[in-house]
Task: structure prediction
Amino acid sequence: MYSFLCDYSEGAHPRILEALNRTNLEQTDGYGMDSHCLSAAALIQKHIKRENADIHFFVGGTQTNLTAISAFLRPHQAVISASTAHIQVHETGAIEATGHKILLKSSADGKLTPADIQAALDEHEDEHMAKPKLVYISNSTEIGSIYFKAELEQISAVCRENSLILYMDGARLGSALSSKENDLTLPEIAELVDAFYIGGTKNGALMGEALVICRDDLKEDFRYHIKQRGGLLAKGRLLGIQFEELFRDNLYFELAAHANRMAELLNNCFMEMKCGFLTHSPSNQIFPILPNNIIEKLEKDYSFYRWKKTDETHSAIRLVTSWATEERDVYVFIERLKKYYRSTDC
Amino acid sequence: MYSFLCDYSEGAHPRILEALNRTNLEQTDGYGMDSHCLSAAALIQKHIKRENADIHFFVGGTQTNLTAISAFLRPHQAVISASTAHIQVHETGAIEATGHKILLKSSADGKLTPADIQAALDEHEDEHMAKPKLVYISNSTEIGSIYFKAELEQISAVCRENSLILYMDGARLGSALSSKENDLTLPEIAELVDAFYIGGTKNGALMGEALVICRDDLKEDFRYHIKQRGGLLAKGRLLGIQFEELFRDNLYFELAAHANRMAELLNNCFMEMKCGFLTHSPSNQIFPILPNNIIEKLEKDYSFYRWKKTDETHSAIRLVTSWATEERDVYVFIERLKKYYRSTDC
Amino acid sequence: MYSFLCDYSEGAHPRILEALNRTNLEQTDGYGMDSHCLSAAALIQKHIKRENADIHFFVGGTQTNLTAISAFLRPHQAVISASTAHIQVHETGAIEATGHKILLKSSADGKLTPADIQAALDEHEDEHMAKPKLVYISNSTEIGSIYFKAELEQISAVCRENSLILYMDGARLGSALSSKENDLTLPEIAELVDAFYIGGTKNGALMGEALVICRDDLKEDFRYHIKQRGGLLAKGRLLGIQFEELFRDNLYFELAAHANRMAELLNNCFMEMKCGFLTHSPSNQIFPILPNNIIEKLEKDYSFYRWKKTDETHSAIRLVTSWATEERDVYVFIERLKKYYRSTDC
Amino acid sequence: MYSFLCDYSEGAHPRILEALNRTNLEQTDGYGMDSHCLSAAALIQKHIKRENADIHFFVGGTQTNLTAISAFLRPHQAVISASTAHIQVHETGAIEATGHKILLKSSADGKLTPADIQAALDEHEDEHMAKPKLVYISNSTEIGSIYFKAELEQISAVCRENSLILYMDGARLGSALSSKENDLTLPEIAELVDAFYIGGTKNGALMGEALVICRDDLKEDFRYHIKQRGGLLAKGRLLGIQFEELFRDNLYFELAAHANRMAELLNNCFMEMKCGFLTHSPSNQIFPILPNNIIEKLEKDYSFYRWKKTDETHSAIRLVTSWATEERDVYVFIERLKKYYRSTDC
Result:
């Protein structure tokens, strides 16, 4: 059984394990105050071209989101997000558990628009309603789409005009920035948003997300919030060592580019088979629509999500590739798929 | 500079790194639903002799404490703890951030007594006061002391008589159970408390704490709480693999016993030098009281905490040993200490 | 300027003021433990025909909702409600501020259906999502509609099959139960829901809502929650005295019936004028759709909400009547409206 | 049975009831936006000599405290208070329920000192501990003592040097300011603290506390917080009308002065009987220490709290007087007390 379920099925890229082995017996300070965390932060600052950005390392994405959002907001302030947002759908009410309402805007492609943001502002006008204050976007989104530069510029503009905090969930930022269609760079993102995180867990690390706080007034006392929410890792160096390795050179982007290439191979095959797609995805998650009988055959050898029933005889499935997906495994899948199509009346 | 600051200065025991390397390319399910987590849970159940205990793995202690306590309590219910408790002193208000009050009982030796618990119950009698519901104890405590069997039995009895939940923070449970003075076993603890955790971070793991829920009515929906608080690790297997290694045989206890032996060597030396101690500690943290001029000399080559000024010319320091402390480094320290004493008027 | 803005524009019904004056110098216990609160609770128990229901008095609706919902739920549990729900739209995120997510179901008429509830259950199936546990409905709803007996029975059935708590916001329960179209009784409601409140503020009291908890397992320690959320009124008797007066006889229902009659007079006039309505409302809030130029004329002498633009030249307005609305004021309004229509090309 | 249990045993001063009766049929805006609230706020601003202070009306003290404190603080920030503080002892964990830790300083007389504040600051120095940010004091305190001008100036100075918010709970501010020993004025308090509230419930109102926010940066969006915590009263005018009456002239201070005089009469009698006192109280709560057999006799005709056992045969009791305490009832009490003393071997 081979898994296309997610991009965190395997451990870590070998270089990361090597780094952990190499540094294992060093004695360092705890809680992210060690030389590896400092060095990893400096490397990331260099990549984003902002030496004064604050970098904090977390173990996972939900923890990063809930800590940052609750640290940035006062109690009456709310988050604007797409209805597909991870914080809305897949974090068990973690944001609400810190006291904040999420204001949803329905989205077909997983992206939020300036018009959505303006509408949320217009709808909330007095103290009987929560006050919109932070805009949450994901790049790539939960359904594989990515933000283009012009889109992010417009969102950033509407946020700044309205004193909204713009926060980007970058659990799959590597895949977004390494996409063939992408026209954004890390420094541009750091310029346009107020805070974002660079996901490691889904791109080659054992675990780890690097939160980047760009805006000065969001920086104060941030480590208190990490500790209070349970996110300050005792052996913080584990995160520093991994991000050192990912950003020492371009490893982070190379791993993501590989994942995207593997998704593209799969994508091309589905297009060849004349499959439709639930959504256009130029990143490492794809959502082809297949006949249910073919899905059943695939399920004998592969794990993946049945995402959505699209009609009586078809469903969209989700296939996710990663730094660890091997080309030969993709080709075996493609061969099988083609065989099933040949032997089936679709 | 050699560090006796804490027991999480180094990475992981070599067997743990080997296991991570060995399993790195396995594809597993995420979020702790993989075979390694299941196997680690089974090993722990066997060690504690309770097959129906629920085992959940966390990355760190504060996260374990805040998730368990907030899951177990209703909003108006409060925690009883010693004034020295980690949740009171060193978690940045994490428990209060989930909405719960901590009711403090002053403690000289870090331990809570049945009388403390009874007093807290007596003082809180109506709806104008928070309602005591959970008793938090640490073993070993934050200042190195350990609970004896008779003590734990009495605490357990007063809790059960009063329908209080008894929770043990086991960040350093290995050290407590491996102490020469200890008369408790893991199965006895599992019998006497309602939930406890077995600390890995401070005993040889890269990171990881195994929460054990013994009481049935505390088990329901627990994974929701882990996720909501940001503690559900995507590559949950990392925790499973480490606890598999620690509990496959007696590695967990051997590492702790080593740490205790190293602390004992230091302890014996301080006793030989006629030092006093802040508190009696039979575990891997010791708190000798030294002349300030000797402390200053030691600080040139060693990191450790100055814990408390005890008079104008003396202070208690904290020295912590671990699985990674090497005997030769302890002997070098002892030699230096003796030399400083010989050359000083104390 | 005459106001149809809301049903809390005036003070209290004269009988209530008289009762407050009459009892003013009595010395009573505080916090709702006095004889008036006990007597009011007994009167309500009699009206709902459940002597073992627990009755708690609150000053206002938002406080009642947030206290009850946060007392009933564990942290990971969520509320299912219509998108028009007061807790969703007009409580400034009060429910989320206690840590709970609200799962919205879009509703045209302000009512929730069994299918909505089932859909919410189906969509939330594992620990990565909040767990639906409480169903919130309002009767009458925020847009004037009311629940019929068959509807409430079906909702109650789906809740009980799925171990969901059914909670009814009765801020305007008097108006709902006194509606000409109503086929529900107080005892039936108490049978079908698990908790509900009987609104006084909008039906003749200075302030006050009576929360009725029908289900035994929701009753425990409830006064702690009221106190913790700041809702335990020192001179609790003020609430008891008012509800004594409202439920000593049928005053509560008579006041609501009067409000409904006044709304019906207005309603009939709008129908005569061939106005459309935003929604069908048989209670004390009506939402006629008027030409904007007529609205502007009315606004010179009357306050009311412009609720929603319905096309380029028309808007729905909200008119609310109450126990204090005098018939002669309604007739003056009607006269004016008719005059404006006669003199206008609509 | 006559009650000295508390200062909220009766309803309201007749002038307040008259005002409520007089204004009953006025139509006003809801939620504190009416002319009575505006006028009451203006009267209070004049009394405190700060026209730019923000005034918000609440129904009760716990609600005022929890709303203000949670609005003023970020999640990691904590409150410093005396161990006797109402928020610590008698609000069921209301502050913690909004997420904030209370750091206690033991106090014999109910007052906090600059040294206590400095100690709390010194003890909390890094992100592993909650960060002290707000100082909570009560005047008069929970045990009847009052702050003198020099004390408040010193506390204010240490707060401003350390960027701490100084908040005064004025549930019994009237009694404090009307005490014979008092040397503080309302304008001085408004100058020295950042926010405080003027208690109405315990000084002649049916209910009501007026929160005064002096510091500009604490004012923003405050009404959102009131609404979110359930404290925005629909018929807000009820609070405005009462404070109009209390501050239209000096009624507020006259009522408090009466209460203090009644307490003084009692006090003098206890001194004459050579009773000791638990604490020195120049306000409307006194804590004489009596032989238990005399207490038992008094309990036949009077309600009051047994506050604390002081030795095997004596206890301190609490007697509270109010605007409604009549002189003749005090004299009857005194006569009885003297009689019991005469007939007893104490």
